[in-house]
Design brief:
The protein is of the alpha/beta class and about 500 residues long. Strands 6-7-8-3-9-10 form a 6-stranded mixed β-sheet, sandwiched between helices. A 6-stranded mixed β-sheet has the order 16-19-20-13-21-22, sandwiched between helices. Strands 2-1-4-5 form a 4-stranded antiparallel β-sheet, with helices on one face.
Length: about 500
């Protein structure tokens, strides 16, 4: 395999953090090179250096046989290097077409006016390369997270890059969208396009990868062919130890009912009824658009309820807004962690955000109490931060997720609505989140879990409700259902031998 890219001795430090510690990586032409490691291992920082979003403190980049300098993302694109970031870099108020051509030489007519027909044609061609088709005149803010992810990928494809960096590209995609992306990657490989692919999903590593590099604590641990690797070996390299159980579900006897939903109807939901017991983890399965998100948001006061009722400990609730939900000890961990954070605030300020009244006195914040609470959860959740006053935007994705969890733990909530709680985090951190769920259940909390990862849903739930088109279509005990049955019920299909 011809070497197409060399990263030599790349080093990068931030205040209190040695993010990338003299890393060396080689990528071949027409190769899918998987980059693995725990959150905070240095993967995203290393790729931001390669794509021009950040500058290394030292080191050399050899690209297509020559040493290059990448001072900006624009220069990276000019060189043929494009990156799809885990945290999307789209402009929400611009259209799909405008976002796709942004940063490129935009076609103009003889009068110097933008040629919108050419722009739309280019945008549609990029989407067609991915095997998807939707209205390019729509503003990005009108799209769901999955379609926004596809727009981001189409944007890089439209620049005809020779090296494409994908950072958790499938974290918000449906299975059908993932399959289209994988087909696109394999097709572009045949055109000599190379990929660096960051993921926490092991099935993607072996389905797509040619070679694998593992980082830990900012250092290169090993590079090996995907055909010679196995999952246990890779996990051990990533976390520095063997994980005996990736889904450590504890058997906890549920107690009395804590939450009851009766005939709940919204614009999307149609007569939803169920109960949640203390100590129980209730899973919600279903395809994208089935109504799982709407159900959590209705319980949290984010959706208008047309009819039906929500009862907490037997008492009806009138949830006009999330403020009412928080006052009634209901917590929502959103699918997009950034909706639960204020990134310009410090770690301690984010952790105590939902508990601000409890640590205030006559309108004055008790700073000592805030620090005490923040330190407690930083220790318990092993949040990697150099200090309490570190701004959240500088933390890795997994540690940001832990901060959101810490915020709701600090609020002393009784009902936890967890929407994709392990999205975009590494296998070691996932186990920590699962153990946290076990602890909450053991304390008598009620948990509703929405997860698109079926092994997670089946392993961590006590019961599973499957939604389709805004209705509950089936209910299962976790020991009496298979992944195939969940998918069949979600899709309205039947299983044949």
């Amino acid at each position: 395999m011809d070497t197409f890219l060399e990263l030599r001795d790349i080093d990068k430090s931030f205040p209190g953090v040695h993010a990338v510690d003299h890393v060396n990586i080689e990528v071949g032409r027409a190769e899918v090179h998987m980059l693995l490691g725990e959150n905070g291992a240095g993967k995203s920082t290393l790729m931001k250096i390669l794509s021009g979003a950040q500058q290394a403190d030292s080191g050399t980049i050899i690209y297509n046989g020559r040493k290059i300098n990448v001072p900006t993302p624009k220069r990276a694109l000019e060189l043929g290097i494009g990156m799809v970031y885990q945290e999307l870099s789209l402009v929400p108020t611009l259209t799909v077409a405008e976002n796709i051509v942004l940063g490129s030489d935009i076609a103009k007519n003889r009068l110097g006016v933008l040629d919108w027909d050419s722009i739309d044609r280019r945008a549609n061609e990029a989407l067609e390369t991915l095997g998807v088709n939707f209205d390019t005149s729509k503003k990005v803010e009108e799209l769901g997270l999955g379609k926004q992810q596809l727009v981001e990928i189409a944007k890089i494809i439209s620049h005809e890059a020779d090296l494409i960096i994908l950072d958790e590209p499938t974290s918000a995609l449906t299975e059908a969208e993932q399959e289209k992306l994988f087909n696109t990657i394999n097709r572009l490989k045949k055109q000599d396009v190379s990929f660096i692919y960051i993921t926490h999903k092991m099935e993607e590593v072996f389905e797509l990868g040619d070679r694998i590099t593992v980082l830990r604590n900012g250092k290169s641990i090993n590079t090996l062919p995907a055909a010679e690797a196995d999952e246990d070996q890779l996990v051990k390299m990533m976390v520095g130890r063997r994980l005996e159980n990736q889904y450590p579900k504890e058997e906890i006897e549920p107690k009395e009912t804590i939450l009851e939903v009766k005939d709940l109807t919204t614009k999307k939901l149609k007569g939803i009824s169920f109960s949640l017991r203390r100590g129980e983890i209730l899973g919600l399965g279903g395809l994208l658009g089935a109504g799982r998100s709407e159900l959590l948001e209705a319980i949290f006061g984010l959706r208008e309820v047309k009819s039906g009722s929500i009862l907490l400990d037997g008492k009806p609730l009138n949830l006009r807004s999330p403020v009412d939900a928080v006052k009634n000890n209901i917590a929502l961990l959103t699918k997009d962690r950034h909706n639960g954070l204020v990134e310009t605030l410090q770690v301690d300020e984010n952790i105590t955000m939902a508990d601000i009244e409890e640590i205030s006195n006559s309108g004055w914040l008790r700073l000592t109490e805030e620090e005490k609470i923040a330190e407690k959860f930083i220790k318990e959740l092993e949040i990697a931060t150099p200090s309490l006053d570190q701004h959240v935007k500088f933390l890795s994705g997994g540690n940001q997720q832990k901060v959101v969890l810490a915020k709701w733990l600090a609020s002393n909530a009784d009902v936890f609505l967890l929407h994709e709680p392990t999205r975009g985090i590494d296998v070691g951190t996932k186990v920590e989140v699962y153990n946290l769920m076990n602890d909450l259940a053991a304390e008598g909390k009620g948990i509703i879990l929405v997860s698109s990862e079926l092994p997670e849903l089946l392993s961590m739930s006590d019961r599973i409700l499957v939604l389709r088109e805004g209705k509950i279509v089936s209910e299962h005990d976790r020991d009496d259902v298979t992944q195939e049955e969940i998918v069949a019920n979600a899709a309205g299909a039947s299983i044949t031998d």
